[in-house]
Fold each of these.
Amino acid sequence: MHLYGHWRSLATYRVRVALKLKAIDAKIVAIDLLSKEHLGERYHAINPQGLLPALEIDDGTVLFQSMAIIEYLDEAFPDPPLLPIDLAGRAKVRGLAQIIAADAHPLMVPRVRDYLTENIGLDSYGVKKWIDRFALPAFEAIEIFLRTQEHSGKYCYFDTPGLADIFLASHVIGAGFFGCGLDPFPRIQKIYEACVGLEAFSSSHPLSQAGAPAHI
Amino acid sequence: MHLYGHWRSLATYRVRVALKLKAIDAKIVAIDLLSKEHLGERYHAINPQGLLPALEIDDGTVLFQSMAIIEYLDEAFPDPPLLPIDLAGRAKVRGLAQIIAADAHPLMVPRVRDYLTENIGLDSYGVKKWIDRFALPAFEAIEIFLRTQEHSGKYCYFDTPGLADIFLASHVIGAGFFGCGLDPFPRIQKIYEACVGLEAFSSSHPLSQAGAPAHI
């Protein structure tokens, strides 16, 4: 198995965590986001969308999109599971993950920030306001879900780390890169602390990867 | 079952199609996006994220996020299936759906367009350029996938409509509202035509819903 990714990519981080929780070995193939290697022909031949990550499984099939890759890993390597067994629980965990995947993270990615600065002319203050506008409501919604749903425990769904925790942790890190702290979100903070207590999460942190700087 | 939604919401459209493909009856509860009813207390008590759609299932549990809701429907009502059986196929179908759910649609939603016009001051030409920048690459990537993957058939995955078709059709409609046509994407165009040949898709179209105008 080959994971095409980059230390800075939070979608790659999610797949790293899932692979480690399941103790699956994958060879890391670094695609350099910063020099825009993902936009080149070589990577497009692997993933025509040109986004990270992509996972090449052992028969050579290339999977793309972090959510789809992690659902695949959970189906192909079911132990330990990343989704609960009961159907409504699965929907809630997937729903929490999608709040990050669909409503928060896509507004913060480099191509959006680049367009805001290069094409629209926002300065760094304007970009920070943009990030706050779209990163924080996801935390606010998830904090309420965690406070009001009986399934909230050490992790998003009782006491086992899973899909929602992986996506939530990726957003904690990503928003953190832009100065969004967790003080207003005590439940999320506790869950994130539980996550980083696990080697699968801590060793997957973007700044712990080869090629990463000491801080951003 | 109660589906909270709005005629204009493309995420609600996706769930309408899935319900109809599976012949599941759900009572529609209209939440008026245009008067911002989704931002009010009454709807927040149902879905704390304040986004559409939400699906209240028969035991009173409220599910949120269109992808999570449709995965639930596929697990709870497996016939006809919206995902293939083989694991790599499931990952590819989910991946195509996520291209729309995570990389294209979130950049076109009202709260983003409102921020671009009200806070940043873009005019309608600037908004159209923004839409083109973020709506079209999803079509471009999916068109290449459809051209190069053996599973491309009458629909995204062979000859059965499923999860990827639902998300793709929602984006065809959504991008169409902003004047993005399908001429550069002949495979997508053929699949969309196959979709609208099905009553589940045609009767779910935003402009066919109660309260919708004749055109946008």
Amino acid sequence: MPREITAYSNPLIKWARDLRDKRHRREARQFLAEGLRILTEARETGRLPSLLFFAKPSAHHPLVQELVRAVEAAGGEAIETTPDILSKLSGKDNPQAVVGVFDEFTSTLAGLDRSSSGIWLVAERLRDPGNLGTILRTGDAVGAGGLILVGECVDPFSVEAVRASMGALFTIPIVRTEWQPFLNWLREGPGQLVGLSLDTDFDYRGARYAAPTFLLTGNEAQGMPSDYAAACDLLVKIPMLGKADSLNAAVATAVMAYEVLAQQGGTTRKA
Amino acid sequence: MPREITAYSNPLIKWARDLRDKRHRREARQFLAEGLRILTEARETGRLPSLLFFAKPSAHHPLVQELVRAVEAAGGEAIETTPDILSKLSGKDNPQAVVGVFDEFTSTLAGLDRSSSGIWLVAERLRDPGNLGTILRTGDAVGAGGLILVGECVDPFSVEAVRASMGALFTIPIVRTEWQPFLNWLREGPGQLVGLSLDTDFDYRGARYAAPTFLLTGNEAQGMPSDYAAACDLLVKIPMLGKADSLNAAVATAVMAYEVLAQQGGTTRKA
């Protein structure tokens, strides 16, 4: 049976609320995800929160009841609380029906099966959590094998990144690594490293993307370092006709990824 | 000569700071834009702030000096202030060198020249300011003729939208209108209305996009109403192979817009 907490001063509420803070999240190695859609998607991929907060008015929703049963069956705890407290946990005025506390999880390079997909996304020093989440969401949509984060990237478990991923955080593998280990791993097997660059005239539609293609997107403000660009098998540019000289990083990644997907026949993911 | 304000309690600072608030912005019909890059881009398109705040440490930057001269020559006021006050104006910890207060401006349907571009972006009930700004940025990159906002959309002059647009707010026409006036205007001349939809199996790469193509993107959560979809000349779908059933609205718009651009030869904008 779920226990009930209605006081914002409750230490467990405060502890969960603090997971919005990066330092606290890093120590706890846990993170917050919110919303029935995302938590149900997580459950379908086999991930359940160790703590599940749900609002009393939502207690009779079938999906909430399923989540509560699943969390309790797995040894986690379900806690009934108020919409107001849920709102404070999620930091949004219109609180979601549920907020979950999940254990962090990432994959390792060694754990990736590069034959599992024709498209892999690689981002280096990505700074914006919304961009990271959006890239995950795009990765899910194109059937990417995973997202490889190189160097000092924003935390994929931040509330903003989880929210922007719309659940894709749970559906595609995420690896956090550095440039040299990534490059070493990449060169141990087949794979074309394609860098998005402003310093080339080679149009992205003119290239051929064999499977597996690793799409490298650089830092939002600076792009990628020149030695990273030099290590790419191919540098391509997305044409820009306007006054500005760049696209949003998540947009550029998506435009590229859909070109690769189209060339690879639209169905790169193994069943 | 710029005057100097160093007190946060100064009424002008407070007034400008309040432009971050929607209601105050609507009354004043003015908005904030920040950063040397964006303000310089605005100047190049002929738009100058009526008020320009710059931080004392940046006073000797040539681009800041050019902006100050241009603003004063145009009858506006330049105000030297502290990095701390600039930070409070912009709401960011790392303040930009400059923050400007601009008069709002929008275009009207009647003022658009549909022969000026092969691509037009149309968004209905767009809710997220980051998405709106990112769509503007993409619009600039593909040489779109303009962005037409249909129905109750988020304010394109919000600080978040202006920031995400990276200056594209100043480079492409924005029209705010309702569905029926838009449709009436559209049907007065040539133009194909293409709707992004999940309720079709027609792959976006299989369609032909004649100039001018009007790309319609629906609300982030609900998509577009069925009667809007019925009014489209064509509904297309971007394939999604993953567990989720949707893309970020700005991402979907960009993937579509770049397909249209590629089909139209990559150079749709008149010189």
Amino acid sequence: MSEVHAARRSRLRARCSAAGSTALVVSRPANVRYLVGAAPADAVLLVGRLGDDVLLSHWEAADAIADPRPADAEGMRTEVLHGESDPATAAVAMAMKAGADAVAVEEHHLTVSRHRALAAGAPGVRLTDLGRAVEDQRLVKDEDEISSLRIAAEITDRALGELLESILVGRTERHLALELERRLVDHGADGPAFPTSVATGTHSGVAGHRPTDRRVEEGDFLSVCLGARFRGYRCRIGRTFVIGSSPADWQIELYDLVFSAQRAARESLEPGTEYRAVDRAARTVLEAAGHGSALGPATGHGVGLEIGEDPRLSPAAMGRLGPCVPVTVEPGVHLPGRGGVRIDDTLVVRSPADGGPELLTITTKELLAL
Amino acid sequence: MSEVHAARRSRLRARCSAAGSTALVVSRPANVRYLVGAAPADAVLLVGRLGDDVLLSHWEAADAIADPRPADAEGMRTEVLHGESDPATAAVAMAMKAGADAVAVEEHHLTVSRHRALAAGAPGVRLTDLGRAVEDQRLVKDEDEISSLRIAAEITDRALGELLESILVGRTERHLALELERRLVDHGADGPAFPTSVATGTHSGVAGHRPTDRRVEEGDFLSVCLGARFRGYRCRIGRTFVIGSSPADWQIELYDLVFSAQRAARESLEPGTEYRAVDRAARTVLEAAGHGSALGPATGHGVGLEIGEDPRLSPAAMGRLGPCVPVTVEPGVHLPGRGGVRIDDTLVVRSPADGGPELLTITTKELLAL
């Protein structure tokens, strides 16, 4: 894996040297992970102009949130800091010593205070903005990354499938969510990609609903959103079921509607499609049925090392899909006081010649009565 | 609860108006939660000079991480935003309309890019730094907060106690960690306060060790760190056990040493004690035994709405403990290739007249052979 990371750093270097920057300091954790592999939570990467890259960290273990092990960054220099110093400040100082006169930092990640301390610690160095250069590079995934996402989706489908075989009536949202997360780990996930959402009855269809002690009852809609994290890569599935043998008419109608919207968005996924056209495909269907306002601000988003990354599929998003970009398609409608439906998939954009969008989350989207 | 939050906002307003600021924009999630109660993840609080406070949010549900329900902020105005606008920008604009000419923002939370967009969106408004005003106010806890921490600790002790009654040999770190987290929720926790750490054999004693598939074996040290989150408040316990009937001599020695260091730090907790004196109390014991370098950069830290908050108990920390400040005391030693010991408690600083430090995590610290 270390060559993959070295190649990514070379691409970044090539791209940013062209823009005149001398040294780059990458501090955003998902960006660091992309460029070096698993790294401590506080790690900062100095990308030198000559390939003299250094990973700086305390591997500060005291906070239990951090991964205390050094990065699996064979073949690159790592520097373990002591005391309370900021690895970003240390990185800028190191760049200075190496003769850099400009250092590009991630202004969308560094706080105003941290940036000020950085500048104060490196008088004479010109700090510039690296911007979203690493995020831009992360947008299109290589086959290694897609393969990690594919495994994450397989694990997720399996965990969900097992849940569907068990008795659901009478169990709480909270316990169902915990069981799903345990099953993700049982099947090899590093952990959940995001907090598992289980919503039943009037809660169903609420995006990002936090599980409560409400129990599943006969006649409920039950909506479940979960995803595995595998080698750092995160996917997402969402499904809605009906509890009991005979769904009500309004449940069947609402389900069919959300399903049509979701299918329209999935079918629009093609290299060259505008981000907002994907959103529009789903939104038009829901608006025509009078449920446009129930839809959230976006229909989906990119996934990878983060569960919500570029692109964003929303009415105002600018840009066009490229091949090998994994995205979610996740429209939902919630009717206050009644409940609702969510259907979320993770897919990879592929050209029609390559078979069209690759569906990673393959659990059925028929309305199952459980 | 809403009066508690209103009183906190009044204190903040009183304190910051004295410094001349006109309107305050609080964006750091733990600070927002402290001032309004549970709130959506993207919520930003505008604290007006006249008590005209507003909570702004998308309750942006699309990312599943957010809590999509509006704050339990009865009696205060809430504003639900549409589209993709930044609630902080909207808050500054609202302060302008209300006639503010200066707005204090959290420069230690806002990124450089976000701050720049904020300034661009509000020409003519002077942006100043609110600094850590809310964090400073959060340092000393009221009895409501301490009572939430006490319940969190009770839940944590119970979950750990149950684990100790079960068979451990042959089970993986990963499964033990998941079981502990399930038990936390079973006993009423909102969730774990931080990722549960279970470390066995050569992993034991590593701070923040992420559970692996290593199984517990006869003769191992087993160290476990966990904590419950209850009404947002987070505590922490760490214990080390020995597996099998007869600990080795080196295990008994190392355990006694870490225990002495931990006790020395606990006994130093008193209003007026310097933060670094608490660290020194533990560090001196470990250094005398030649294990000073095995200790991390801090011996403990404050807890509350965050698992690691002010104060920090480290050699360079400036300041003195006050009453009603909850802290952890968590020294540990890890011997590479062999294993180690961690003993973590959560305590509340109290004056000797009030009975001295209040131990919240009461699970025994004898070396148990399981």
Amino acid sequence: MIGVAVIGYGYWGPNLVRNLAETQGAQLLYVCDLRKERLAAVHSRYPAVQITDDVEEVLRDPRVHAVAIATPVSTHFRLAMKALMAGKHVFVEKPMASTSDEARRMVEEAARRGLVLAVDHTFIHTGAVRKMREVVETGVGDVYYYDSVRVNLGLFQHDVSVIWDLAVHDLSIMDYVLREKPVAVSATGMSHVAGEPENIAYLNLFFDSKLIAHIHVNWLAPVKVRRTLIGGSSKMIVYDDLEPSEKIKVYDKGITLNGNPQKNGEKIHQMLVGYRTGDMYAPQLDMTEALGIELRQFVDCIEQNGTPIADGHAGLRVVRILEAATQSLADRGRVIELEQQRLIA
Amino acid sequence: MIGVAVIGYGYWGPNLVRNLAETQGAQLLYVCDLRKERLAAVHSRYPAVQITDDVEEVLRDPRVHAVAIATPVSTHFRLAMKALMAGKHVFVEKPMASTSDEARRMVEEAARRGLVLAVDHTFIHTGAVRKMREVVETGVGDVYYYDSVRVNLGLFQHDVSVIWDLAVHDLSIMDYVLREKPVAVSATGMSHVAGEPENIAYLNLFFDSKLIAHIHVNWLAPVKVRRTLIGGSSKMIVYDDLEPSEKIKVYDKGITLNGNPQKNGEKIHQMLVGYRTGDMYAPQLDMTEALGIELRQFVDCIEQNGTPIADGHAGLRVVRILEAATQSLADRGRVIELEQQRLIA
Amino acid sequence: MIGVAVIGYGYWGPNLVRNLAETQGAQLLYVCDLRKERLAAVHSRYPAVQITDDVEEVLRDPRVHAVAIATPVSTHFRLAMKALMAGKHVFVEKPMASTSDEARRMVEEAARRGLVLAVDHTFIHTGAVRKMREVVETGVGDVYYYDSVRVNLGLFQHDVSVIWDLAVHDLSIMDYVLREKPVAVSATGMSHVAGEPENIAYLNLFFDSKLIAHIHVNWLAPVKVRRTLIGGSSKMIVYDDLEPSEKIKVYDKGITLNGNPQKNGEKIHQMLVGYRTGDMYAPQLDMTEALGIELRQFVDCIEQNGTPIADGHAGLRVVRILEAATQSLADRGRVIELEQQRLIA
Amino acid sequence: MIGVAVIGYGYWGPNLVRNLAETQGAQLLYVCDLRKERLAAVHSRYPAVQITDDVEEVLRDPRVHAVAIATPVSTHFRLAMKALMAGKHVFVEKPMASTSDEARRMVEEAARRGLVLAVDHTFIHTGAVRKMREVVETGVGDVYYYDSVRVNLGLFQHDVSVIWDLAVHDLSIMDYVLREKPVAVSATGMSHVAGEPENIAYLNLFFDSKLIAHIHVNWLAPVKVRRTLIGGSSKMIVYDDLEPSEKIKVYDKGITLNGNPQKNGEKIHQMLVGYRTGDMYAPQLDMTEALGIELRQFVDCIEQNGTPIADGHAGLRVVRILEAATQSLADRGRVIELEQQRLIA
């Protein structure tokens, strides 16, 4: 039985607590938060769980094997490092840290101590995204593009731009679904409220191949859109997260190329590009709550010395892109190289 | 009665001919095309119209006051200049020319000779776009962003990229709907077929104000999307051209800002950004065929010495952006300044 | 402070308990259920609430002023009568009873004792339905038809047909939204599982005026539909409950009738029927949880001796239609008169 | 080469003429209409086709082997009988005739003379409906229900009700797609304009099996809907004719029944009804114009002595249902038996 503490009981913490309370192999021991009223809410709902506003108390307790951190991003590094140094496995909310340097140090600390470091890239544990990865791996062919729109009239954040708030989802999904990693990023955007971070942004991601990726995030849209298009040489996918059941649609559509264009010069192309349209299908999806699956995997990794799907390296790769995108945003879309090799090695 | 000749009877020419045959004040005298079978098609349908493969014959005829040019883009400049020099008013397909230099010379030639030069920016004559401009001018407040997606599984062009084929529509609509003109552009994209122009592209348009514009065009998408979002300080608009009747939806949504954030520092913002959600309405739209309206205006301008809504300057502004976007596309999204002042002056 | 007990903690009971726990002026004293494990669930969640499997204990307690009954339909009559006879106000789930005779006796008992009898017609307390009634009363003109489709792949009930399970919603909405009451009903349907009640049904409702109403309910549909069309002489409404925010759309569409058709005979009609198409608007809706509003009103009625919007008479009218529809269903759609006068008087 | 004449050049006639002009094996010889201006329209468009207002002239011409009749329904019988008696094959618009008696006499006359009698049930020749029939025959299992909605703000007809105008489409599709024929029909509806036929109607169709069919037609709806649901024991279909490409969706959804409910009594059912949800797919559809396919088949049948898919018997079955539905409509939905055996034999 893995003893677990949840640190931070704000927006997401209650979901962690609710799922941990039902995770086989885990025992929820503590919830820690600085706000008395949040602790009171925990107590009335889960009288058996200890509540405290002192994270040191949690980390001192030898029955606690792991902590789940759901505090503001700016505190992730400090709390996670403290926990790792106390020998605790860590499950941390996304984005994993405020800077890639922080993220890298977290990865190194966990590796040095042989502890599990998992990042809560929730979406990659949904039935929809898992199915999308399966289709990409088995049927899409060469991936031509990845295009995502994630917009709505959303709560303005005051400390981070819309990129850190919304694009982080797309970046973590891309990191899981695509085999290739981006080598450079650029971003444009705008803040429409004086003194606030950017509320609309567009990211371009460049790869070594002909793959191109693009993400549109916006807190100020009149309609809610959650739609990703993936184009491949064999199949194309539409992932619409707002569809109640047919979230993933796979289209047998594309172009066909025949002959040897090099030999015959430019004119000949016109005859060689054909269009293919076949059936569409929407595979049945596993509707199990993603967070439950994810926490179960975290516990399994601790017990069996495994590596979570979204480990510290995945978290670091995402933070590195967020960081570079933020840098580009301040410079009207200048391309920022990602020095990917260092990050993954 | 204005005598008109149509030059080019390929994809769009038949629409020009059909509409000119019903345009009050215009008399369709000639259709000119190099292909015998196209001329035969004209003859069987419109036996009273003269057919010819010799553009000089058309331009020599003093009964011809105006020509409508619907040939490939690369020939627009040569044919339009020839017509203007022969004293004919010109209605030319979009994009107006292959380069801004050509477009500028066309504008100058028409101005020098006092001839009408109209560019066929068809969309701006639709009921939907005219209504959108009306709403932008009267109710949207400060325009924050203009975001357009125009994607489908479309015919690959072999001479021009998807920007010249599809983004030209969005640029002509923006030119008409927004009061501000862009001052710089950047574009990223990719060709997924060796030897072919880019089939997917993303454009960013920069303005002197906080307005930001973005266009996504794609010939290789599994679904057809034609959707524009306009966000303003007072209202927001969704323009979905695939909706059968409710193409324009106006949302009384947005954020409200209260207090004096400067005085109180960053912390105070959180309380000051509010969200506003009110009614949505979809105004009734005039469904008259845009091309008919447009050709009628062209004839009116000739008769009354007027200036068409989409005149040579509008066509030039659009071509200048296409040209700069193409330049940026080749350089991973480098920002290209538009030297707007020279263009408009 | 009104002391309340909830009887029945199955599917709907938890919603009653959660809302009552937050209803101003109400104090939740008891939850009563025959199943130990359900009572345990209450206790762990609401330790301050008394749990019991003995309804008599509840009814004996003088602190209990009112009971909310969320048990199977077949038990409503017995439990409600017991509660009324014990002097308790009653809030009962829909449908109110198994027969109109039972419903009528409940109404009479409550009236005799001066107790509040409310029926949980939840939908009529939603922002969408309240807005729909407002539009019908102020702008629709003569109501021509009311057409509702409520289908999905739903849980088969084993004791009642799809009419009692799904059409009850539409009947309660109609009862609230339309000023006229139906005078006759017919229904057709089918059971596709041997020994089970009808899983698909179509109801026709007849009125004294030209109003016609129709309801399609189906437990065996591949897609979920919740859509009501209301056609009127001045406006038309589409109510789509699956739309996340624009649930009510009001169309300024219809026909216009001019001249004097009587005088000129049949031929003249062709010129006199015109079509009108104007703007559509989707009013902003109050998104407050319906059940909370409803329970607050129940408490208010107890305190101020008022009558709930969905009182026993409303519940009785709905049950009478369900009963007649069931009778018609067994006889291939024979029309059953509703003897409305006796019911309402 | 089959010589063909078109009689009636109103709303649908131009489609017949345009398709016949391109039908291999057919030669369009005449267009006949009583209105001079309609004939002038034919002449300017098709100068080689003879025009006349005298149907006798057409029928006398031995080069004319077949006529296509696109006149008002009330004239179908007279014109078709005249043509059959003159030895011409007949292609007649739907509905085939005003009464089943007329239709029966047309069928008998064609049979007696060995002439082809085809009814223009256009929809059954679309790729969507042909695919739907294929799916019904190969994968749907037992058909449980057929439910169709065909509503919009449509042109009021003055001689026939909405049933004859719109439900005729659904009846002809059902006749083609389902193997079973209905044995009885009932209909309710209403006219909301004094002196006009019913503008809204609901039809129930009864079968010898557990199949149930229902059609909702309405000229006075704020939105356009063209949607058919087919539920079967193995698969379910949604046919949405307004979808641009995915008109047919096949759902692997339904219920599963296990065990022996008879043996165990009612209680056991609850455990035995299970729900099945699998993939959905939207098969690619042939987008060829239906009328062209249909006219080609008509010509083939003449040449090869074949029987068209929609022959006179199909037309008669549909008219018989329309007639019975009209009778039921006048009597608040009284069930009318269809005496199907006589019709088909």
